[in-house]
């Protein structure tokens, strides 16, 4: 099983255990909403634009709500379990595009529940996550109002954010740095070091793609 499919399967198992009304870290979304989002992302390319473009968000939301209206929660989770669209036809694309997507959304559900703790990740997944953080930091951190230095536990540095001004160092394992970069700062187990005002700005910045 690929890393992407492993995260997909683990997330769907968690969906099944928690049911449709559990909270997630995606603002305003329950597990039902997140499952519908994942189906839309893979199987309704006509509605994907609103994920990134505000002007199209209304249509995307209507399609997502329509998926919930047409599919009971267990059925929708069953659809998520099976890679769909082009990802289902091209496993290499599933691995390239979905590994981090499903890892982050898996953590969105895990970390919204009480008593969560970081997982011990396979070394292969840890290496892949750091590779993506190192190559994508500038894009993911582009809206940060302060300079950010990502320092990986065990070695590795990546830079992003503002090109000058105050600097904040963000230290932690690759997986926690990824969640920070994806805008989950409040739930990422990282250490922020720098001027207090700059640290506050970094912690509240809108990050991610």
Automatic annotation (TrEMBL):
<dbReference type="InterPro" id="IPR017519">
    <property type="entry name" value="CHP03085"/>
</dbReference>
<protein>
    <submittedName>
        <fullName>TIGR03085 family metal-binding protein</fullName>
    </submittedName>
</protein>
<dbReference type="InterPro" id="IPR034660">
    <property type="entry name" value="DinB/YfiT-like"/>
</dbReference>
<dbReference type="InterPro" id="IPR017517">
    <property type="entry name" value="Maleyloyr_isom"/>
</dbReference>
